[in-house]
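Thread: Newbie trying to understand structure tokens

Hi all, I'm a second-year student working on a class project, and my supervisor (Dr. K.) asked me to get a predicted structure for one chain before our next meeting. I've only ever worked with sequences, so writing a 3D structure as a token string is new to me. If someone could post the tokens and maybe explain what I'm looking at, I'd be very grateful. Here's the chain:
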Amino acid sequence: MLNHAFARSVRASPALVLMALVLLVAGGPAAPASAQGTTAPRTVKVSPGDTLEGLAKRHGVAAAELKRLNGLKDADLIQVGQILRLPAVPRKGVVVVKSGDTLESIAKAHNTTAAALQKANPGLQPTALKVGTSLRLPPPPAPAPAPAVAKADAEDTGVAPPPPPRLRWRYYGDTVVDWASWKRLPNGVRYTLVQPAANDVGEVRAQATAIAVDCTSLRHNWRVKDAWEAWTIPTPRSVGQQIVLDLCGNAVGEEPRPVPVPPSPTP
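---
Reply by user tm_fold:
Sure, no problem. This is what the structure looks like when written as tokens:
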């Protein structure tokens, strides 16, 4: 019955049709967000003294983009009271392509890579980006794991973690010294295995298999062909002197182990 009455009213007064349509539009649901990942379009009303450049700067957009979006042929021909469209605000995780953008520039601005952008947007043509297109940003990389902390440190037990292992080999030019195997005798002499090179120590000592060092007198001794040489003071800046100074400056007290090596020279 109400429908019949409404129909008669419409036939009697066409103005009611226009009023009904206005009410339906005003009371209907709000326009949905853009399917391309941006919010609803924004607008701005031109006030006295406004310029396109000033409006663009005020709203954080490019003047060229504002001009393109509103189909303006001349940026100086905007009028007071004119409604201008503003670029839609991208949702979080979405970026809108602007004039002059490239895939590389967008990637750099958002701390990602062009390859990651393309992967997040299947079917994207990097060389044919269209202004206004919304691109999904790839998720940020996972934070790097924190360095492992020794259990003793983490629990603050006061127990220091074990020291790192000592390097076994040390090179002096082409000469190799077994640095982790120095042995100390009761008289203070230390010795270890060595693989010398002729260009470092000469042809004779190149046949040595061990070296002994006396830190009291800073002398050294080479074991050549199963026989120990006489104790000598190493030549300045020679490989032998470097070995003596490095050992005697950082000598570590290993347990003594008797072996047949020459006695230390008497002062």
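A couple of things are worth pointing out once you decode it. Residues 15-27 form the longest helix (13 residues). Confidence is low (pLDDT under 50) at residues 1-7, 15-37, 149-155, 252-261. Feel free to ask follow-ups in this thread.
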